[in-house]
Design a protein that fits this description.
alpha/beta; 8-stranded mixed sheet; globular; 8 strands; 270 residues
């Protein structure tokens, strides 16, 4: 583990491999460990840099302060990329981290060569309607709010189960490996910040502003809003490529690391 000082905060990260940098941004309740299963495949030809965002593990945050904001995390990733000293590298984000990566590409395309969005999280503005042949799904904000209530009530395990099963389906929490569960537990307090993170919905103009070559990836077994958002964005990002990881859900890189690594590598090297 290494750290770099960005915007008054020491951001922790792991670095594996050599070559053009690929900065990887985790999602809700994740950290640099999120990417463990694909570090090997991706680092064969890339300098893979997995970062932990502000207030995530290895920090044990107490929930205090007002700097758990989407804009702060976007600014931190921009600062991180600038500090590691390589312009025009690649950026990959998953879930909430996909939203962050999207906003980085929107604000600073000069820093990026290619962009990978694995089921980016968020909500769609009315300017990005869901096509008639796609089912509309309620956003996940209500699940997050319920998990926060459960944390305040002392039911951490229930909060995590509620969040996870809201994405992967009823009964899936009991099948999550112990190490993956521990990672989520280590970051559970960040749920408290996420309630007021001021995340803006995706707008049509936002998607049209992305000029970085982009790959959007979805899990073939993912249901709910996360299965729809990336498909809608792909329709409006110029030249966007898409891929589906069959028989995998939202955490597709853990469930099918070989297939995921192959799809990402082919895009980055193409």
């Amino acid at each position: 583990m290494q750290t770099v000082h960005v915007n008054g905060y020491d951001m922790a990260y792991l670095e594996v491999g050599e070559g053009l940098p690929l900065v990887c941004v985790h999602g809700t309740l994740g950290d640099f460990r999120t990417w463990y299963s694909v570090l090997g495949p991706l680092s064969k030809r890339h300098r893979v840099i997995a970062v932990s965002l502000r207030h995530f593990f290895p920090e044990h945050w107490n929930g205090a302060g007002e700097d758990y904001k989407m804009a702060q995390h976007v600014a931190d990733v921009i600062g991180f990329i600038e500090r590691i000293g390589h312009a025009s590298g690649d950026l990959m984000g998953h879930s909430r981290g996909g939203h962050i990566a999207f906003r980085v590409a929107q604000a600073r395309p000069d820093l990026l060569r290619k962009l990978v969005l694995a089921e980016p999280g968020g909500d769609l503005d009315a300017s990005l309607p869901v096509p008639a042949d796609m089912p509309a799904h309620p956003p996940l904000a209500a699940r997050t709010a319920l998990s926060v209530e459960m944390i305040h009530a002392g039911d951490v395990e229930g909060a995590l189960r509620n969040f996870y099963e809201g994405i992967e389906g009823d009964g899936t929490w009991r099948r999550v490996p112990a190490a993956a569960k521990q990672q989520l537990r280590d970051n559970v307090v960040t749920f408290l910040g996420q309630l007021n993170e001021q995340r803006k919905p995706y707008m049509l103009a936002d998607a049209q502003a992305i000029t970085t070559p982009t790959l959007l990836i979805g899990g073939g077994a993912t249901t709910g809003s996360l299965s729809v958002i990336w498909r809608v964005l792909a329709e409006h990002i110029a030249g966007a490529k898409t891929a589906v990881i069959a028989n995998a859900g939202h955490w597709m890189f853990e469930q099918a690391p070989h297939e995921y690594g192959k799809v990402v590598s082919e895009f980055l090297e193409g």
